[in-house]
Amino acid sequence: MKIQTLTALVTCLFFFGCTSNDFGPDSEQEAKPDPQPVQVTYQSTIKPIISAKCQSCHFNFGTLNGVKSEISEILRRTQLSPGDSQLMPKGGPKLAADQIQAFKTWQQNGFPE
Q1: Torsion angle of the four alpha carbons 73, 79, 82, 86, in this order, in degrees rounded to the nearest 10
Q2: How far apart are CA 23 and CA 14, in angstroms?
Q3: 82, 40 in Cβ contact below 8 A?
Q4: 79 burial level (CB within 10 Å; 0-12, 13-18, 19+)
Q5: Secondary structure of 5-54 in the HEC alphabet?
Q6: Is residue 40 a contact partner of residue 102, using CB atoms and an 8 Å limit?
Q7: Alpha carbon of 76 to those of 24, 47, 111: distances in Å?
Q8: pLDDT 10s per residue in the chain (113 long)?
C-alpha cells in the first residue's frame, strides 16, 4: 500500500511539475517583441549626417535630390579603407557603420523624404 501511494504521489508531482511554468520564461523575463525599426528618412536620418559630415565641402549635398544623385558614390567612398585617398569624409574619421547602413537602408526603401 505504501509503495502504491508513493508511486501515485511521485507520478502526480511529475505531471504537475512538468505542466507548470517553471521551465519557461517567468513573467518578468517573458520574451518581448522586437522594437519597431526606426524609419530612415532624409529629414530625420540622412540630412543630419550630411550636415555634420559632408556639407562643409559638398554644398550640392544640401538637398534630397543632390544626395540621391550621388548615393552610389557616397556609399563607395565612405566604405573605403582608412588611408585611401578617396575615403570620405576627407580628413575626418570614417562614418560609423550604423551611419553607412542608414544610407543603404534609405536607398533600399526608395529614398523616403
Answers
A1: -10
A2: 13
A3: no
A4: middle
A5: HHHHHHHHHHHHHHCCHHHCCCCCCCCCCCCCCCCCCHHHHHHHHHHHHC
A6: yes
A7: 47, 18, 17
A8: 555 544 454 454 444 555 545 444 544 555 666 565 679 999 999 999 999 999 888 876 678 999 999 999 999 999 999 899 999 999 888 999 999 999 999 999 999 99
Instruction: Read off the C-alpha cell for 100.
Output: 553607412
Cell of 45: 536620418
- Residue with cell string 556609399: 75
Residue of 39, 107, 97 lying closest to 69 (CA atoms): 107
Residue whose grid cell is 560609423: 96
All cell numbers assigned to 67:
544626395
Cell of 21: 511554468
